[in-house]
Amino acid sequence: MAGAIDPIHQFAITPVLGPVTNSAVFMILAVAGVSALLLIGSRERALVPGRLQSLAELSYEFVRGMIHQTAGKHGMVFFPLVFSLFMFVLFCNLLGLIPGSFTVTSHIIVTFALALLVILTVIGYGFAKHGLGFLKLFVPHGVPGYILPLVVAIEVISFLSRPISLSVRLFANMLAGHITLKVFAGFVTMLSAALGGVGLVLGILPLLLTIGITALEFLVAFLQAYVFALLTCMYLNDALHPGH
Amino acid sequence: MARESSDGGPERSDDDLSGRLDRLDKALSRHGTEKGGQGGTPPISTRDAQGFARAFRLSSELIAGVVVGGGLGWALDRWLGTTPLAMIVFLLLGFAAGVLNVMRVAGLARHPGQDDRPPL
């Protein structure tokens, strides 16, 4: 019986149609969901927005506020990138919470590719905009010359750790959350299978816990998308204003 | 937008964008939006979300620094054949970078791109 509940099985990538895997299907679903929300939401253009339109407007204003706070008004050049990343990660996280579905963001290769996109944008834009002045990012002000090499090495490692922490945070949170959910939900069936009627009564406890964790996972799904987009803004801010 | 950015450099199109956003802002405030001028409050209270964001970051920044430092050292060792040396040095540097990351998240150290603004 215990062998039937495998908490890792939900992350297996299986081909669905030729080269299209279940991961790719859910990525496409996420993109389609975002597009549908924004296209249908902005179709009415009502002065008093309907439900879908106000959802689309809220998500726009949320990301806009985030960029204004962290990167200032000039950060708005990156609005399309940040908004796309936020909505994609949010939809992938939320779609993964539908029972039986696949969580795209629970694979580190996906989150790392997204983080790499962010960091390469920062590096590319930084060098294109400031030239070698972008390297001032690694040289803090007012550091005596004799410890400068050490400080620069630490700053470079700190910069290189950004895509790692950005991707591992998202991936680990989604992975751990889904495993926890599966394990606690598995307790319900295991208890009733092992103890019969008594197990069925006892199974209410892990069932309640599963409901609680599901609610928590919805919060985490939103917050992880928020953190990802917020950090993207902060890193892009470095590309906009390196050094001083 | 596409036509405007194709004939000017990135510098020009950036100014262009902020100019257009300013005009849009003015037009919107002239319009007197029913929001009462509070200008884009996010759905979840920003302070809460920022607190959560900081908590999530604190736990992972230190590890990322150490991992990157150790990985760099390991790669250098394999490349130069100086087996334990570079790894030891870079692991320590990575630890320092991780602590720096955590201090930045906690607001105890300045971000490299910031001067006088308080850290987020």
Automatic annotation (TrEMBL), chain A:
Superkingdom per UniProt: Bacteria
Keyword Transport: yes
Membrane topology: Multi-pass membrane protein
Keywords, in A-Z order: ATP synthesis, Cell membrane, CF(0), Hydrogen ion transport, Ion transport, Membrane, Transmembrane, Transmembrane helix, Transport
Transmembrane segments annotated in the record for this chain: 24-41, 76-98, 104-125, 146-164, 184-209, 216-237
Keyword Transmembrane: yes
GO cellular component, one term: plasma membrane
Family to which the UniProt record says this protein belongs: Belongs to the ATPase A chain family.
Protein name, per record: ATP synthase subunit a
Organism the protein comes from: Methylopila turkensis
Native organism taxonomy: Bacteria, Pseudomonadati, Pseudomonadota, Alphaproteobacteria, Hyphomicrobiales
UniProtKB/TrEMBL annotation, chain B:
Transmembrane segments: 55-76, 82-103
Domain of life: Bacteria
GO terms, biological process: proton transmembrane transport
Keywords: Hydrogen ion transport, Ion transport, Membrane, Transmembrane, Transmembrane helix, Transport
GO cellular component: proton-transporting ATP synthase complex
UniProt-annotated stretches for the region Disordered: 1-47
Compositionally biased intervals (Basic and acidic residues): 1-34
InterPro entries: Atp1_alphaprobac, ATPase_put
Classification via Pfam families: ATPase_gene1
Role: A possible function for this protein is to guide the assembly of the membrane sector of the ATPase enzyme complex.
Family: Belongs to the bacterial AtpI family.
Protein name in the entry: ATP synthase protein I
Species this protein is from: Methylopila turkensis
Lineage: Bacteria, Pseudomonadati, Pseudomonadota, Alphaproteobacteria, Hyphomicrobiales
